[in-house]
Amino acid sequence: MDIFTAIAPLDNALLQAIQAGINPTTTAVMLLITFLGHPAFWVGVSALLYWRSQENKAFFMMNFVAFASAAAGVLKHAFFRPRPSAESFQIIGSDDYGTQGFPSGHSTIIAAAFAFFYKKNKMMRNAVIGLVVLLVAFSRLYLGMHFPSDVVGGIVLGLVIGKANLFARDKLFHKNFKPTGLEEELALVGLVALAVLAVMFLRSFPMAGLFIGFYAGFFLFKEMDLDQSILLKKWLAIKYAIGFAFLGTIFLLGENALPIGMVFDHVGQFVLYAIGGFWISWIWPVLFEKLFQEKPALAQ
Questions:
Q1: Domain 1-203 class?
Q2: Cβ atoms of 280 and 80 closer than 8 Å
Q3: Where are the domains of the chain?
Q4: Per-residue pLDDT tens over the stretch 230-266
Q5: What is the pTM of this model?
């Protein structure tokens, strides 16, 4: 008897108890909360930081998204544990991984975020982020996407990934990350490459394109010794608005959600997502500086 078979009665009982309280209002709230564990949310946060001239911080944030997505994908294929069935539970929503449940990818990502942002002297902030972790984990159960043991496994995995990424950040945060001058950064770059490959083959081909585009732009940005201006709130708002408008358009095209008369296959989606990643880390930062460099109110 394997471990999942042994704990199945407890998993089933807990999930049934949680889903006993399903109602339309709570479902709407849970669908919003669960998005906090989706890679797209953290890609958006990384873009916010990058366009605020915090390129290295955005780089390490993107790392935990890539590492968490990759690790969850590898383990899902290794364990190949089925998700809760529609015959026994209410299934609300869908997931990139199809029928594979252990560990929960959303729980992995949000727990990695908690470990990454954790600070010993910021107990209130830690408590708030910890509560978000629990809410995202609960949302995965409420929506019928996972068994309790799936989210527990995801949280443990995410904490490990977040701590490892935090260790790498503390060691390398002030490095310039120029491809022509990589030294101890090489190990991290190698891990990033492996994570992107894992995402490509085990989770989402288009998402791998986004990571590739982002990292290509990041290293090119560093190699060219580029800088972004520190912006006043007005100009930062303009930068965000235009940046996210284009990024959102790219992703909607990639998801075939715009009525343009053509449908993108996986290769087309990969290219579009790669453009989106490159837009975040190179195209828009460089283009914004070129377009608005003459504005007198640009820098503080």
A1: mainly alpha
A2: no
A3: 1-203, 207-300
A4: 888 888 999 999 999 999 998 888 776 666 656 678 7
A5: 0.87
